[in-house]
């Protein structure tokens, strides 16, 4: 039956009125409740009316690769957007594999938004280049601007933050996560006007300079809705205690340094302040921790669901004692200073644990290194059966251990194992680690993200292609034996969206085996593999809707393609590519 | 499979091309050599290059055994094996060096002098020609003063023999200390906080408050480290003489070779002499995890940002833009 539709005249000049059983207003109301991007995408594909209703009702747009689309296209399709999330550089730029000045500058986006999205309220950027001028432009152009979140961005200084603090009268969120920021001074914090009270989220944990503590204290006191506060390590315990008194309602707290000497009285005041924090769900910071003061925290830990100790070099006993007080923990990040014993304590004390990340305290082995081994991981798997997200840095692993782990925890959705010495085999059997990842992909049918390491042959990739049917993101380094490995993955993983490869023996045959697949993926990264310029040119020629970019390094042979970044785009080739980026 | 092994891979016995290129590198204070330099150094060193792959793009691909040639890149594309790759953009150079190094090797080669910064010129990423080269020079001068560098050279020396067999078996890569750009995949903010954490945490035990600022001091070749309280010194001169007193016991061996035995008591000038002779250089790791030459910034800024000190062999500090005279200009 042909649905009778009534179409509002959004398009200029056109007015088609048809009797309706399902008016657009209703449709738009319903669609406003659909939040997930994937669902919205599906909705927009149903029919033209639904496409229109969806685009008019969309208030948040997520752009996973800023070069896949142009700002003009975005504003044209979605006129009412108030919140934008943008991701820029390829993920390996976090590890210095992308030269500086590569691009992903927010500027051209802001210019277009300034014209079309006057009501913009939120901007969340990841791996973008943001200048102080852009931040100032942002602060001045959007009167309703509320939330700024910068993660892994570069190009700006604390002057830009000062502009935001000075001009954004309705700011609720200032979330300066780990960025490459030129930290000139802490004076930006003092730029919040004295009558400014709307802040709900303040995170400056990774800024180095001192802020004016009195200004911070006043700010925290008057922002009654503040529920996330993450301070930097210059804030002392005594100062922290004063902040807690001002803001006992905090749900997320990042402490400063947990170190400086306290008198008994100060210590009990601190403990009392923590006792008053009944709403704390997330705790982080604790850099430079003096373990004797940790018990002050215990009263606040009862409702903790996320404990981030990745800045705190705790020993195993200290962690064990702390964990006893955190019965509801779901997410835990630690440094490998806790060693296997600490991980055993995790297994014993955290039955609800869903996510564990173990970071290396000494990745370059400058001191005596212990770290964690396979036994710690096994211990966690026995105690934390709900574990589904793991990031684990270690120096030794065995195939048998991984098999045990996934048998205990078959629900892994994210399995990121980093054996820190490249190409290291199973240290007991000296075999490649192929069977480990075979166990992972066979057992964990819900696996969406996988990072492999250790000595791996093409067999690993055969297994991945054969079994990892839900895999969306795959990270590979120093692995594989031949093109066949990559071909298996490209031929086998139907949901693959992001593939990032470095230092593997995959060449043109591998690259070209996936050329139809790349249009269904967000991006492909291959660096220091065996791909040549001719291979890339061929790919570019066959697939005009892909951007095939090669980053050239000085002095290397012109026929090798050192770094290849391939992504689908409706915006065509980049117009802002620096000289070392060749778009083929 | 035939591999044209051109005798020893880093030309240990061929000092002239090495010195030639090391001269070029030491005279270069920027991080990239000019293309001409690269090309000419490449031409000079082609003879001494270790070729782990057949030269020429027409060469057939190697058929790797499981896990053997994980990086079968055509080495003829590179200017040299690994140790002499020019100081390119550190991002690329370092990485390149590792791949070359690990290619069909036991992976024990190269660069174990760790430091916090990946992209630092002297992050032993192999592409920093200065680093391994310095190691070589160090080898020429003093055999035993640099325990971390020596194993490199010992491995290196034995590599030509071990290379052929390695091709046929799976490469065992135990504890490869090679540092590669971007590996392990840790974000830089985390590295910075970790290194300062390690330094501060060990400082934290036993002492508190703002009154003192203990940092570790290591000296290449010394069997153990020391700690100094930066707060008790007022300028570079003072700390320099204190350090020299502290480490005098380790420098005696060097002193004798420089004919300084017989002077009673070490004084500042002896360390200076050692240092003027480019024997040692004082460097420090700053808040960002970068290794810096001591003496460039005002004293207060130095104590604020210094996390640890390292008395580095001068030969390894080539390329830090080193002129030891900097330190003594205070």
Describe this structure in words.
- The complex is a heterodimer of chains A (584) and B (330).
- Chain A is α/β, with parallel strands linked by helices.
- Chain A has a 21-stranded mixed β-sheet, covered by helices on one side. In chain A, strands 5-7 form a two-stranded parallel sheet.
- In chain A, strand 1, helix 4 and strand 2 form a beta-alpha-beta unit.
- In chain A, helix 16 (458-467) runs parallel beside helix 17.
- Chain B is of the alpha+beta class and 330 residues long.
- Chain B has 10 helices and 5 strands; from the N terminus they run ααααααββαααββαβ.
- Chain B has helices at residues 15-27, 35-45, 90-102, 130-141, 149-168, 188-204, 236-246, 248-257, 268-276, 299-305; strands spanning 214-219, 226-229, 280-285, 291-293, 308-313.
- The N and C termini of chain B lie far apart (60 Å).
- Residues 1-47, 49-177, 200-210, 253-273 and 321-330 of chain B have low confidence and may be disordered.
Ordered list of secondary-structure elements with their pairings:
The complex is a heterodimer of chains A (584) and B (330).
Chain A: H1 24-32, H2 37-44, H3 48-57, E1 60-63, H4 71-77, E2 83-87, H5 107-116, E3 122-126, H6 132-141, E4 147-151, E5 154-157, H7 158-167, E6 173-176, E7 180-182, E8 201-203, H8 213-222, E9 228-230, H9 237-246, E10 252-254, H10 264-275, E11 282-284, E12 306-308, H11 316-323, E13 331-335, H12 339-349, E14 355-359, H13 374-383, E15 389-394, H14 399-408, E16 414-419, H15 434-443, E17 449-451, H16 458-467, E18 473-477, H17 483-492, E19 498-502, H18 508-513, E20 523-527, H19 533-542, E21 546-551, E22 563-568, E23 581-583
Helix pairs in contact in A: 1-3, 6-7, 8-9, 9-10, 11-12, 12-13, 13-14, 14-15, 15-16, 16-17
Chain B: H1 15-27, H2 35-45, H3 90-102, H4 130-141, H5 149-168, H6 188-204, E1 214-219, E2 226-229, H7 236-246, H8 248-257, H9 268-276, E3 280-285, E4 291-293, H10 299-305, E5 308-313
Parallel strand pairs in B: 1-5
Antiparallel strand pairs in B: 1-2, 3-4, 3-5
């Amino acid at each position: 039956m042909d649905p009778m539709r009534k179409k509002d005249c959004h398009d200029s000049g056109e007015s088609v009125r048809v009797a309706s059983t399902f008016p657009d207003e209703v449709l738009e109301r319903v669609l406003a409740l659909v939040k997930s991007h994937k669902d919205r995408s599906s909705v927009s594909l149903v029919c033209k009316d639904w496409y229109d209703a969806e685009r008019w009702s969309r208030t948040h747009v997520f752009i996973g690769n800023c070069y896949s689309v142009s700002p003009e296209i975005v504003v044209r399709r979605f006129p009412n957007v108030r919140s934008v999330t943008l991701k820029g550089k390829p993920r390996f730029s976090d590890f210095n594999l992308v030269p500086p000045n590569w691009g992903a500058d927010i500027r051209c986006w802001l210019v277009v938004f300034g014209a079309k999205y006057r009501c913009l309220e939120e901007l969340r950027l990841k791996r973008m280049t943001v200048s102080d001028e852009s931040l100032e432009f942002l602060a001045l152009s959007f009167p309703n601007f509320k939330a700024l979140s910068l993660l892994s961005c570069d190009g700006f200084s604390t002057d830009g933050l000062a502009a935001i603090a000075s001009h954004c009268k309705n700011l609720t969120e200032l979330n300066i996560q780990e960025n490459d920021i030129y930290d000139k001074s802490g004076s930006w914090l003092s730029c919040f006007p004295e009558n400014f009270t709307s802040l709900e989220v303040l995170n400056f944990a990774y800024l180095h300079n001192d802020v004016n503590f009195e200004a911070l204290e006043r700010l925290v006191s008057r922002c009654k809705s503040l529920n996330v506060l993450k301070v930097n390590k210059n804030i002392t315990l005594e100062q922290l205690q004063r902040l807690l008194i001002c803001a006992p309602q905090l749900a997320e707290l990042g402490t400063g340094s947990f170190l400086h000497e306290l008198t008994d009285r100060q210590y009990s005041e601190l403990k009392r302040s923590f006792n008053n924090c009944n709403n704390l769900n997330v705790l982080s910071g604790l850099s430079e921790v003096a373990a004797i003061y940790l018990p002050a925290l215990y009263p606040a830990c009862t409702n903790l669901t996320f404990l981030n100790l990745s800045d705190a070099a705790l020993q195993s006993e200290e962690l064990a004692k702390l964990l006893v007080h955190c019965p509801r923990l779901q997410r835990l990040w630690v440094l490998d200073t806790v060693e296997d014993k600490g991980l055993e304590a995790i297994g014993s004390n955290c039955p609800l644990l869903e996510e564990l990340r173990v970071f290396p305290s000494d990745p370059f082995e400058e001191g005596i290194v212990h770290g964690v081994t396979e036994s710690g991981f096994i211990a966690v798997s026995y105690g934390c059966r709900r574990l589904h997200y793991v990031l684990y840095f270690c120096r030794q692993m065995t195939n048998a251990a991984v098999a045990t782990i996934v048998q205990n925890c078959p629900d892994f959705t994210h399995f990121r194992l980093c054996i820190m010495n490249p190409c290291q085999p199973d240290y007991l059997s000296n075999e490649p680690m192929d069977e480990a990842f075979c166990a992972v992909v066979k057992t964990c049918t819900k696996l969406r993200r996988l990072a492999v390491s250790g000595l791996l042959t093409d067999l690993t990739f055969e297994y991945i292609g054969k079994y990892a049917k839900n895999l969306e993101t795959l990270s590979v380094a120093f692995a594989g034996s031949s093109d066949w490995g990559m071909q298996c993955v490209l031929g086998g993983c139907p949901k693959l969206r992001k593939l990032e490869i470095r230092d593997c023996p995959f060449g043109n045959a591998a690259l070209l085996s996936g050329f139809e697949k790349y249009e269904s993926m967000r991006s492909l990264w291959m660096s220091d593999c065996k791909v040549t310029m001719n291979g890339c040119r061929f790919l570019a020629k066959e697939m005009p809707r892909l951007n095939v970019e090669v980053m050239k390094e000085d002095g290397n042979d012109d026929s090798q393609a050192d770094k290849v970044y391939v992504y689908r785009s409706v915006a065509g080739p980049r117009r802002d590519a620096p000289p070392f980026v060749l778009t083929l | 499979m035939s591999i044209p092994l051109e005798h020893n891979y880093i030309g240990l016995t061929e000092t002239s091309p090495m010195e030639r290129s090391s001269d070029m590198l030491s005279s270069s204070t920027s991080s990239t050599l000019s293309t001409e330099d690269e090309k000419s150094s490449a031409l000079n060193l082609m003879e001494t290059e270790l070729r782990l792959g057949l030269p020429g793009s027409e060469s057939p691909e190697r058929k790797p055994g499981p896990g053997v040639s994980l990086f079968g890149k055509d080495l003829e594309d590179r200017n040299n094996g690994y140790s002499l790759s020019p100081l390119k953009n550190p991002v690329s150079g370092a990485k390149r060096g590792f791949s070359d190094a690990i290619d069909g090797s036991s992976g024990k080669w190269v660069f174990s002098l760790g430091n916090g910064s990946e992209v630092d010129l002297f992050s032993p990423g192999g592409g920093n020609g200065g680093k391994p080269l310095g190691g070589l020079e160090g080898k020429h001068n003093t055999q035993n003063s640099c325990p971390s560098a020596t194993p490199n050279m010992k491995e290196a020396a034995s590599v030509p023999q071990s290379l052929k067999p390695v091709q046929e078996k799976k490469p065992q890569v135990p504890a490869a200390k090679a540092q590669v750009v971007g590996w392990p995949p840790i974000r830089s903010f985390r590295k910075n906080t970790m290194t300062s954490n390690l330094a501060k945490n060990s400082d934290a035990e036993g002492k508190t408050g703002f009154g003192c600022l203990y940092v570790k001091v290591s000296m290449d070749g010394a069997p153990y480290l020391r700690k100094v309280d930066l707060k008790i010194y007022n300028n570079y001169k003072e700390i320099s003489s204190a350090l020299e007193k502290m480490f005098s016991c380790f420098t005696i061996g060097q002193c004798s070779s420089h004919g300084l035995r017989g002077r009673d008591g070490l004084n500042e000038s002896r360390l200076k002499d050692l240092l003027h002779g480019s024997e040692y250089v004082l460097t420090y790791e700053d808040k960002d995890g970068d290794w810096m030459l001591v003496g460039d910034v005002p004293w207060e800024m130095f104590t604020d940002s210094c996390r640890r000190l390292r008395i580095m062999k001068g030969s390894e500090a080539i390329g830090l833009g080193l002129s030891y005279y900097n330190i003594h200009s205070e």
